[in-house]
Design a protein that fits this description.
With about 300 residues, the protein is an alpha/beta fold. About 35% of the residues lie in helices and about 25% in strands. The strands form 2 sheets. A 9-stranded mixed β-sheet has the order 1-2-3-5-4-6-7-10-11, sandwiched between helices. A hairpin with a 7-residue loop joins strand 8 (about 200-205) and strand 9 (about 215-220). Helix 4 packs across helix 5. The longest helix is centred in the C-terminal third of the chain and has 20 residues, at about 285-304. The chain starts with 7 loop residues before the first strand and ends with a helix. It binds 2-acetamido-2-deoxy-beta-D-glucopyranose. 2-acetamido-2-deoxy-beta-D-glucopyranose binds near residues 13, 53 and 116. 2-acetamido-2-deoxy-beta-D-glucopyranose binds near residues 53, 55, 87, 89 and 116. It catalyses: S-hexadecanoyl-L-cysteinyl-[protein] + H2O = L-cysteinyl-[protein] + hexadecanoate + H(+); mycophenolic acid O-acyl-beta-D-glucuronide + H2O = mycophenolate + D-glucuronate + H(+). It is found in: Mitochondrion. GO terms for molecular function: hydrolase activity, hydrolyzing O-glycosyl compounds; mycophenolic acid acyl-glucuronide esterase activity; palmitoyl-(protein) hydrolase activity. It is an enzyme of class 3 (hydrolase).
Length: about 300
């Protein structure tokens, strides 16, 4: 896209609002109060409602500008780190925004370089570049202590961010955390399949969550990603960590979250498995668990 500087780009879009979240969460927290406020029915999507929507661009010398949306508010702030090829407007990203709004906490969601409204080419994207994107968001946009919520590949990057910015990252929530993902999946291919991918330079990875039925992953992307693998040794992260994972996840097996729990130095680590959830973890009960987990960590950090 064109160079826009620190621009606010406005557009009219249908507003998808978690109506119940906005009205349900008051200033008092705690499990029983939370459950008492839980609505009986599913959130209403209000297709008729229209709102003025916008995003901003973070200028970075020598690096692509990043599209983001920021809510100002109380500490700790929350940052949502999206999954592979996902943008800032996914179900989880928007639900967390409603929740943060209702609590009055700061919140940031963003697009990786090469994705959505951020600058940069997707073909040139690497795990290393996206890792830098996350660090830019933490360094240049986020104020004070932060809780990172990473979805899938975002869960891998949140671990990197916690290693790199221990003074700012206070807690982590991984949703279907794909630590070392894609690399692990690639390594599970047969020797012949790997050779073929190496020769073609691209891996057509089957995916039911992508319109075309496959993700075309560059071989060079996999090779670069190998440098960022974490699970082979202890992970120097010492903050509270919550790892949510669906046992019906056929993209990233839930054992990955167990491995993360095992490798991190933190002792305050919970792995929460949902038997019937798949990789997306975006059903009502999944979202409720996610916002509950955020709420609980905010409480915990406020007490300490
Ligand atoms: C995300 O939503 C905003 C409105 O909130 C819109 O301006 C932007 O284009 C959307 N981004 C993507 C990648 O769809």
């Amino acid at each position: 896209m064109a160079v826009m500087g620190m621009a606010a780009v406005a557009a009219w879009v249908p507003c998808r609002s978690w109506g119940w979240a906005a009205v349900s969460f008051g200033p008092h927290r705690g499990l029983s109060a939370f459950l008492a406020r839980m609505p009986q029915r599913a959130p209403r999507w209000l297709p008729a409602c229209r709102q003025k929507a916008s995003f901003s661009l973070l200028n970075r010398p020598d690096l692509p500008n990043l599209a983001y949306k920021r809510l100002k508010g109380k500490s700790p702030g929350i940052i949502f780190i999206p999954g592979y090829l996902s943008n800032m407007n996914g179900t989880k990203a928007l639900a967390i925004e409603e929740f943060c709004k209702s609590l009055g906490h700061a919140y940031i969601r963003f697009d990786y370089s090469g994705i959505g409204n951020s600058d940069g080419n997707l073909e040139e994207s690497t795990v290393g570049k996206w890792r830098k994107d996350v660090l830019s968001i933490i360094d240049d946009l986020a104020e004070g202590p932060q809780i990172l919520v990473g979805s899938s590949l975002g869960g891998w990057l949140m671990l990197h961010a916690a290693v790199a910015r221990p003074e700012k990252v206070m807690a982590l929530i991984g949703v279907a955390t794909a630590a070392d993902g894609l690399v692990t999946q690639f390594n599970h291919l047969s020797v012949e399949q790997k050779k073929e991918v190496e020769m073609k330079g691209v891996w057509s990875m089957p995916s039911k969550y992508h319109e075309e039925g496959v993700y075309n992953v560059q071989y060079s992307f996999i090779k670069e990603a190998e440098h960022h693998c974490l699970l082979h040794s202890p992970i120097p992260v010492d903050c509270p960590i919550r790892l949510l994972h669906g046992m019906k996840d056929d993209v990233v097996p839930w054992h990955t979250s167990m491995q993360v729990a095992d490798r991190v130095l933190s002792t305050d680590v919970d792995v929460i498995l949902r038997k019937h959830s798949d990789h997306r973890m975006k059903e009502k009960a999944d979202i409720q668990l996610l916002v509950y987990t955020i709420d609980d960590l905010i409480d915990k950090l406020s007490v300490n």
